[in-house]
Amino acid sequence: MELNMSAEEVLGQIVQLHNTGESLTKKNVKKLHPDLMKNALYYYPSWEHALQKTGVGTIVH
Fold it and tell me: Which residues of 11-43 are buried (b: 16+ CB within 10 A; e: fewer)?
């Protein structure tokens, strides 16, 4: 697997999407931002863990 983001960049992009009002559901991100999802799942055990690391995880469900 080729990664093109660091763990910090993954979190930064999640926060950026959140700030623009984009849906952070796993389904939406997998469809619209597959590289973000792939990188997030490399660094974190689940998409939910990555969201929780940013502090926006409690908002999305």
Answer: bebbbebbeeeeebebeebeeebeebbbbbbeb
Q: Which two tokens stand for residue 8?
A: 């910090």
pLDDT tens per residue across all 61 residues of the chain: 678 999 999 999 999 999 999 999 999 999 999 999 999 999 999 999 999 999 986 544 4
d(CA 53, CA 15): 10
> Does pTM top 0.85 for this prediction?
yes
Separation CA 61–CA 49 (nearest Å): 13
Q: Give the pair of three-digit tokens for residue 49.
A: 């863990």
